[in-house]
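does this look right to u?? 2-acetamido-2-deoxy-beta-D-glucopyranose version
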Amino acid sequence: MTSPSFMRPLLALAMGHTIVALDNGLGLTPAMGYNTWNDFRCSPEMNAKAVMALADKMDELGLVKLGYRYLNLDDCWQLEELSDTGELQPDPVAFPEGMKPVVDYVHSRGLLLGLYSCRGWKTCAFRGASSGHEAIHARQFAQWGVDYLKHDSCWASGERSAAFAQYAAMRDALNATGRPILYSLCGWSSWYSPEGAKLGNSWRISADCDEWANVYVAVRTNELLAAYAGPGAFNDPDMLLGSSPNAPAHLTPMQVQSQFSLWAVMAAPLLIGSRLLSMPASDLATYTNDEVIAVSQDALGQQGRVVWSNCPPYVPRDNWWNSPWSMPFDVCCMWTRALATAAAVLFTMAATCRRFAPRCGAYVLLPLGLFCALYIAVLWSFRPRTHECQQVWARPLADGAQAVCFVNFAQAPARVACDANCLGAMGFSKGGTVRVRDLVRRVDVPVTTLGDDALAVDLEGDGDSALWRVLERR
Ligand SMILES: *[C@@H]1O[C@H](CO)[C@@H](O)[C@H](O)[C@H]1NC(C)=O
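got this back:
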């Protein structure tokens, strides 16, 4: 859906927005909360009652007092069509009394409420979206008392200046309401980062995380983007995946921990995207570790950087609107199955239709079938994969310590060590005296001097990690 290049100046002119820095006072540390997408998708079970139950559960699990304050409804809270006057319409079956009472209830439990819309002409799930109706929708959000907006990018131009202009239109509309509303862009591409801070409080940089390979892609993409993040403006590598085997997307418990540690070091939003009402104990233990949360919420708001890596160079790829790496894995499977069925049906028809019309198969149906088959082959060959490699990430903290994350993406176990260059990249000197704490196990590590191999860990294969806090005593 990319516009031809000769149209770019025209589009920029038509959109006519000047970009000013966002200054809404929100999101000075990465947002924390929960999002319904990987829990409910578009199930009719995502309704007013469920939202209230989710708010109760977030409180009961102790998540609210740890800082998980945003309860975010993703796509499918609204109808397919806008009203005659261009307003978003809450699904009257799921939300019979509208959004206001739901928002009020969520607020009464000490939480904040997030809603979802899209800069395109429909949302990703074909519901009513905000293109051209930004002001009306922003006013609705403000009237309902909404605190957060996730703004998606489906069914919209993939051309950069057009995308920036549409995101700016909603930014300005939210600002004009006078209500501080955290603005979270969802354009799944790394090219948002250089403009991100002017447009929103956070911006998605890569495809949906719905399997470990996509977590790897998000991490590798984010390693190039640290310079663009800071207080009030963060790169967003997508939500946290839990390990519930019956959720639409999930990781192993070990990978859940690694994603959480990496997200803390990358100053990424911590939005739980998994079964909340039946969360596995191991996920809850991971997400409620206040020593890891403290890294995420560190006041410096600096994104971590890679200080050691043996991974191959990585070049982020643009997402097409209908590419497998830009859609949730289960949606991609559905899409692939549909295409495979279409191809099979077309081949069968091609084999039989000549009885009615000579050569119909050869000219029409066979090429169509071949196109479907080719498309599936392309989808398959471009699916994300991890590399057999390891990395060390480090994030500077306000008290002068470094949060250091060692991660093993390879299938086999590996020893990951921070060498002299790695120590130097963190500003540590060899021979220095340190205090080291393992934040995941919550124990002190018996390392006192930075000698050879002082900072090294043995990790399992397939996504194991360690997260240490290293403070040099001077
Ligand atoms: C609107 O933008 C101005 C200028 O950047 C800023 O000072 C103000 O805080 C913003 N208001 C809201 C509600 O975001």
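The first strand starts at residue 32 and ends at 35. idk if thats expected tbh
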